[in-house]
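Check out a protein:
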Amino acid sequence: MLVKMNETIISTINQELEPLKKEMQGIRDSISFMNDKFEDIKKEQQSSNESVKKLELENIELKTTIQQISERLVNLEQQSRSNNLEVQCVPENKNENVYNILTQLSRVVNYEINDKDILHCTRIAKTNPSSTRPRSIVVQLASTRLRDQLLAAVVNYNRINPQEKLNSSHLGYAGLKSPVYVVEHLSPNNKALHAAARIKAKEMNYKYVWVRNGKIFVRKSEGAELIQIRNKNSLSKII
């Protein structure tokens, strides 16, 4: 009798617990489903992170490649001017002959050049149209050697004539004397970089800023470290 009663109680309890068991199983199934979904999302997130890192690396490589190509183009553009000189601040005259101006300049600095040495010579447009300075004269010489020797002759002339450096009167212009400058013909990019280097060097009390073979250099004082300014980032070296 007691056994039968116990079986009845157990059966009743099992019947009462059955819905709860089903509910608990449903909860376990839901948790398992959610866990599987979480793992899937986790894997997708990891895959996305890897893709982002890969894209970031590719972006860095692309930027480096573009920078390298840009520097090559700048160098090629400058190399195309390797035989050129730019003569600045020569007064303009409607009937002028720029070839004669150049041959006269060469006589003044004691390094005469012949007509055959001048491949091309012309005034160029102003970088800043509002500037009151005369348009520069660009001359293309027959070789880089001629360019360097004429430039060296100008530098030497100015060194030995500090009170009467090359000026407009030497080229036959009457009236108020104005300085005439002879420099390497820089590409637009290097010209802008040179200007920025001069400004930064002046701010930081650097004594020397110069150009040699299209390359820009600065030095704070005599005997100090020489710094080459290759691009805008190099300006940060002027400290």
Remarks:
- Strands lie at 84-88, 118-123, 137-141, 181-184, 208-212, 215-219, 227-229.
- Helices lie at 2-79, 98-108, 144-160, 188-203.
